[in-house]
Amino acid sequence: QVQLVESGGGLVQAGGSLRLSCAASGATFSDTHIGWFRQAPGKEREFVVSISKFGTTNYADSVKGRFTISRDNAKNTVFLQMNSLKPEDTAVYYCAARHFTVATYNYWGQGTPVTVSS
Predict the structure, then answer these.
(1) DSSP code for 14
(2) Which long-range contacts (CB under 8 A, 24 or more apart) does 3-8 make?
(3) What is the pLDDT of residues 72-103, one digit of tens each?
């Protein structure tokens, strides 16, 4: 079992920045791939970015150049630095985890809301 707790969400003006954190427990963190997803009101959940156990990253086109994911295996934490935020980034952001041998994300956090005002 893996427990994930997100934090860092909030209200920010367009052009501003936020840093989300995802703290993991209950597993060997260094063996997990971590992803961030988001769900805006009335829309389906969408992929934002991921980081593998090796540190390989993959970004959705909509956030490339603005968001940066990183991980600190010593602290069992993944960070999502979000810069140049836009109103369309408004959503609940979820952290997800999967063991590197598993194909799909099977552990999810409770989400942290991000609201970007125009």
Answers:
(1) T
(2) 3/107, 4/95, 4/96, 4/97, 4/107, 4/108, 4/109, 5/109, 5/110, 6/93, 6/94, 6/95, 6/109, 6/110, 6/111, 6/112, 7/112, 8/80, 8/112
(3) 999 999 999 999 999 999 999 999 999 999 99
